[in-house]
Amino acid sequence: MLNYFNSDSEFVLESGQSLPSLQLAYHTFGKLNDKKDNIVWICHALTANSNPLEWWDILIGENKIINPEKHFIICVNSLGSCYGSTNALSENPKTGQAFYHDFPFFTIRDIASAIDLVRKELQSKLGFEKIWLCVGGSMGGQQAMEWAIKEPYLIENLALIATNARHSAWGIAFNSSQRQAIENDSTWKESNPKAGINGMKVARSIALLSYRNYEAYNLTQTNQDERTQNFDAESYQKYQGEKLAQRFDAFAYYNLSKAMDSHNVGRNRGGIENALSQIKAKTLIVSITNDVLFPPEDQQILAKYIPNSTYFEIKSPYGHDGFLLEGKKLSEILEREVTSRIQATKDAIINTK
Q1: The whole model's pTM is what?
Q2: Residue 71 is among the residues annotated as catalytic for this protein
Q3: Which residues contact 263 (CB under 8 A, 6 or more apart)?
């Protein structure tokens, strides 16, 4: 079910700038059980929305590892996104016009702080104390990590998939090139909801090169004939740009990519090692072996410094997109390392009484 959190209070950002008010869209699925210990909180990636049954149905849904028949599932649309949360196309109550290019800069930490406002409201209404499991992949993992540091006793189990503690120079370079594509769209400076949309199509084409890899393109986009032009790989790049333009806008894409670049859990916390050591949740960390955007080295840093963590690598021909496509492998790991382990602990407690 789609819901909205609304606040007329000023939301102060990490930069010192602020938003005069805040709206956050969020979905809930399933019901909170009597013990109030079945909450699964999903943090979404760059262009996703707050309905993970639409974009992560490999893990979430009927008969899946995260099941609304068993779990109370919550997902909040990120600050700055265009799926119902306050973003650059929202009305600035101070001017009565859309923010457009005046939307203030925000960070991953700001997104996590906004999510926590929804948590506090739901906690007050529903009376739960803990989140049983928080799951995030890619940029969603960055948010989940920040949240687990900010509120170390809130989350019991944390699953971080294909993500990092600090966005790499490599990842920033990809995002910068994408923003340059938007900036070089002649419409970008216009105060228009469609400003920069053609540039965003090119940006998406660039992004795909980091989401997949050499193996993935050869596997799915190689022509079997002997043509000399009009290749499948070429049409695929164009198709994906057009597809995104039908559901997203350049302002959200631009601002969210800048937020991703800002990600550094060690900022003002004494460094990455010190920040990660503050995570109290039992943490599952999953790498995708041939992920060129968030390579295993990024997750190995998490495993090294998060105290109560386990680390797994999965093989996938799809690179970074494996976190969205490798449902069977991810479900097996979650089942073994989270669901079964927690049930075994509950059974042990019952048997000792």
Answers
A1: 0.94
A2: no
A3: 107, 108, 139, 142, 146, 164, 166, 167
